[in-house]
Amino acid sequence: MFIRNVMLRAAGGSLAAIILLAAPRLGAQTPSESERLQKLERAVEQLQKRNAELEQEVSGLKKQAASAAEVGARMKTKIMSEGKSYVEKAVVEEKPPVFVVPRASEFKLVLGGYIQVNFEDGDVSAFEGRFGQTALKDRFRLRRARINLTGDFAENFDFKVEGDFENSDGLNSNRTAFEATDIFVNWHQFPEAQVKVGQWKAPFGLEQLTPDPYLIIIERSLPTGAITPERQIGVQLWGQPFASVWPDEKDLLTYYAGIFNGNGRNTTVNDNNNFMYVGRLESTLFKSKMWGQESSLKLGADVLNSRDDAGVNISQSLNLLVNADGSLSPFTLPGADERTAWSVDAWLKLGPFDLIGEYLQEKVNGRTVNGVPPGFADFTTNGYYITAAYFLIPKKLQAAVQWQDLNPGQKGNDGIHSITGGLNYYIHGDDLKLMVNYIHTWSDFREANPQFGEDQFDEVIGRIQVMF
User: Fold this and answer.
1) pLDDT greater than 90 at residue 390
2) Which of 148, 231, 382, 461 has its CA 20 to 30 A from that of 97?
3) Measured between alpha carbons, how far is 383 from 130 in angstroms, rounded to an integer?
4) Which of 417, 359, 350, 418 is nearest to 388 (CA)?
5) How many CB atoms lie within 10 A of CB 299?
6) What does DSSP say about strands 432-443 and 456-467: parallel, antiparallel, or unpaired?
7) What separation in angstroms does the CA of 49 have from each of 10, 52, 55, 150, 274?
8) Segment 50-81, tens digit of pLDDT
9) pLDDT at 24
């Protein structure tokens, strides 16, 4: 409105000036036509100059109005206290952050993931039995590249959807593709008895159940990879019996009981009409501060039983089958079996010091189905690891050492042992971490059969980890 009034006044003034100049003054002598034209030309020049000045003023006022409108859009009225009275003030409203909008009734939705990149040099993965005919070359390796989405519903349901860009694509063992890892829904109305359905890690093995980004040693041990069932599709009942009656000691006991297909993840069929049964108990005996630092002791035990048909890989995350030269490969059953496994574990934490140990054993017995023999001899596999770690610089620099041993039990004297030493540098906790490990491995079979080549191996692994 102010700009409009200015323009109207300017136009009115210009029109009045033209009329006064054009009309002859009453009671005065009439000048010649030449003089009148000269005066008129001078008047027109003055008006043009004045009009140009007015246009500049109007343009400036428009810019000020636009700026004021923009500021006004970012301003909001807020009641503020000034001593004993309250006043109304205009404050700048902050721009809201960008966020993901839940489609359904979730009250919590979190997008995250992590990336792990390795450099592996020397006898690569020899501690996993990869030497001789299964040896690998030095390499840079995109170990994991995962993205996940987790959420909670007000109706006491939570869920997780996660995939990894670094799983095998199923066409070539040297290529990778995107594949599901965890996909499940969990009903948690009663913390003492929760129900989970979908795909996730079966509750067996402390090291296997420890999330990848929080491992102290870069890679899991060979006993863990050879014996634990890893991810499966099924249903699980789990909970903490003391969660409501004794909240401060809810971690005193946690139980897991699951039924799974037993033939691995991302499958659409079960190998037979039987299922894998898995159970685990955990107990945190104490959790407090000692010498001013967090300390705890957690014990665990697992049991597993499964009846499998031919074609099932019973070492789904690492290797178990002993080859002719003492190296290991994944164990894909040539015939039906029944396997029973158990394990016990302990984790002691005293301030900057961690001590972790686990023992695992599995019996694999062949079954004759429809007159077809199993095609392999019964065997018992067992192994253990012990890991110790200490923070040289609190929460920043950690030294770690691990001893691991696996006895596949398929050939005489076929054990594989490794010792690992490492350093972990926590730049920003586990969110941004650098790790380096040196691993020395012995093969009992190769030592007893020198015709197959070297029986000792060395490897260096470096890793950078980023969580988001």
Assistant:
1) yes
2) 148
3) 17
4) 350
5) 15
6) antiparallel
7) 12, 5, 10, 69, 98
8) 777 777 777 777 666 655 555 454 555 555 55
9) 45
Contacts 24+ apart (CB under 8 A), 47-52: 47/14, 47/17, 47/18, 50/10, 50/14, 51/10, 51/14
Q: What is the pTM of this model?
A: 0.78
Quote the pLDDT of residue 169.
47
Bridge partners (DSSP) of residue 426 are 433
- Helix, strand and coil content of the chain, in percent to the nearest 5, comes to 20, 50, 30
Residues 6+ apart with CB under 8 A from 114: 144, 146, 212, 213, 465, 466, 467, 468
Written as six digits, the tokens of 164 are 């990894």
**Phi, psi dihedral angles at 211 (to 5 degrees):** -55, 145
Contact status, residue 404 vs residue 388, Cβ threshold 8 Å? no
Q: What does the DSSP assignment read for 270-333?
A: -SSS--EEEEEEEEEEEEEEETTEEEEEEEEEEEEEEEE-TT-BSSSSS--EE-TTS-EE--B-
Q: How many CB atoms lie within 10 A of CB 1?
A: 5
| pLDDT for res 51 | 77
Q: What is the pLDDT of residues 76-103, one digit of tens each?
A: 555 555 555 555 555 555 556 655 666 6
Determine contact, residues 72/118, Cβ cutoff 8 Å: no
| Rounded CA separation 145/165 (Å) | 5
State the number of CA atoms in the 13 A half-sphere of 208 facing the CB: 30
How far the first Cα of the chain sits from its last, in Å, is 53
What's the rounded Cα separation, in Å, for the pair 173 and 134?
A: 13
DSSP label of 372: B
Torsion of CA 135, 138, 143, 145, to 10 degrees: -130
- Which stretches does DSSP call E strand in 103-240? 106-122, 139-153, 157-168, 176-187, 194-201, 231-239
Amino acid symbol at 242: F
| Distance (Å, whole) CA 335 – CA 372 | 8
